[in-house]
Structure formats: C-alpha cells, structure tokens
Amino acid sequence: MAVARNKQDTRRAAGKATDKLVLATVNAPYKRAIDARTLAGCLAKAEPGVWSVHLATFFTDVSPKLVLAFATAHGVSKSKLAEAYLVTKKRTGEKNSDLEAELVPLAAAAS
User: Fold this and answer.
1) What does the H/E/C string look like for 67-78?
2) Residues 102, 82: Cα–Cα separation, whole Å
3) For the chain, counts of helices (H) and of strands (E)
4) d(CA 110, CA 97)
5) What pLDDT sits at residue 94?
6) In this predicted structure, what is the pLDDT of residue 4?
7) Residue 76's pLDDT is what?
8) Where are the domains of the chain?
C-alpha cells in the first residue's frame, strides 16, 4: 500500500512540474494568464473559446513531449488533443509539424 501511495505521489508531483513548465511557456507572452484547469478543459472540449492564442502557444512553443505529458496528466485523450490542435490550427494558422505528425492521424481516424 505504501508503494502505491509513493507512486501516486510521484505522478502527482510530476504532473505539477509539467503544469508549471507548460503554464510558464503558454502565459509568458500575454498579460492574461490561463490556468492548468482551464487549459485542460479547452483541450478536452476541443474548443479554445477566448483562449485561442494560449492554445496556439501551447501547441507551437511547448515541446511535443510536454504537450502529451500535460494532456495525459489531465485525462485528455490523444484523439481529443488532436481535435483541439486542428481546431486551433484552423483558427490561428499556427502549426507544429513535429506534433502534427503524431496527432493528425489520430484526428483523422476519430472522424
């Protein structure tokens, strides 16, 4: 039981560290800051709402590995992440070829 608790604590700490890195990058260029819960909600709904520029920054300036880690930590599936990426790309014109190579086939399969 103690081992399971230690693993859970380790995952939680890793998730918080991921959140801090992601939010530092996503919020740096803007006066208005998005929080991890709102960002995760936008991804889960595949609807940027008023946060389009923050999502564009998330998808373009955050490393693909960290994008995936953030999504996983917040229970956002890869297919929903791919859908959010495509919606954001369409609205903003911003793209990330490295991330797109991994995500777009998932979005096409989900359609």
Assistant:
1) HHHHHHHCCCCH
2) 9
3) 6, 0
4) 20
5) 95
6) 52
7) 96
8) 2-110
Rounded Cα distance between 9 and 47, Å, is: 31
Q: Give the chain's end-to-end CA distance (angstroms, integer).
A: 42
- C-alpha to C-alpha distance for 91 and 64, rounded to whole angstroms: 20
Contacts of 14 by beta carbon, 8 Å cutoff, 6+ apart: 69, 73
Segment 32-45, tens digit of pLDDT = 999 999 999 999 99
Task: Please count the residues of the chain.
Answer: 111
Q: Could you tell me the two tokens for 86?
A: 């495509």
Residue 74: half-sphere exposure toward Cβ, Cα within 13 Å? 26
Rounded to two decimals, what is the model's pTM?
Answer: 0.83
State pLDDT tens for residues 59-104: 999 999 999 999 999 999 999 999 999 999 999 999 999 998 888 6
What does DSSP assign to residue 29?
T
Contact 52, 91 (CB under 8 A): yes
